[in-house]
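Revision sheet: structure tokens.
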Amino acid sequence: MKKQKITKTAVVAVVGRPNVGKSTLANAFAGEKVTIVSPKPQTTRTRVYAVTSRAGIQFVFVDTPGFHTPKNRLDEYMEGAVKSSFGGADAVLYIIDRDRQDDELERLIRDSAIPAILVINKIDALESKAELLPVIERYSAAFEHIVPISAQKGDGVEGLLELLSSYAKDGEALFPEGMTTDQSDSAVVGELIREKLLICLNQEIPHGTAVEITKFSERIDTEIIDVEATIYCERQSHKRIIIGKNGAALKRVGEMARRDIERFMGAKVFLQTWVKVKEDWRDRPGLIKEFGYVSDR
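Predicted:
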């Protein structure tokens, strides 16, 4: 079936506090995993574009880091990524987890003067839909549209897309047909490895990790992709924990990551990982930039 030609586009900033489901919603829009997800806050560190098309409209969703008070230079970069996402946006989706609000973020949305929709996520976790009523009442004066959804289950996602179509502007596609993200394959692979660190490690340790892909190539005689990745952490003690006894912890991270990478690439993957220490890298601008967190403010 021939796809309909793109005649309109809508750039939509997706913002909210940490762990309210922004990345899960971006993946639901894209129809595949383009940005990593974990139960831990601050999983997303930079802006990621998720792209999808409906009825001649190309939607570009700008997934952003969770808005929070910065504790280091990396956090400051992440805060800047949220604020810069308003530039060029046709609409804003303000995601809340029932009533987890943020007064400063709401002020930024108001000051931007960009049309905003309040999205109440994780409704599948409610015991009764009646729990939504006080939340809707609280926000009804500030938002013209309030949309309850479950990004994880997909409930309400298509309806939200239909609503967003009213903000589309005439114009050609911003991304080629079939492209679902602006991230390179190697960037997605690095993030998939970091996602597994977030899932497998406890407390602050995974937040102090960064992943650099040092080799990403396909063998000429086979369809196997060779990936070599260096995991950076901030302390020698953290390195020992990441590696684990007899390398067991790092092996688990590698096995989980490899399965996801193979699904993403549609090919067999040979993954090798190393762990190195870069002390306090989250407060060192040069290293923050080296690891790919480059401000565009």
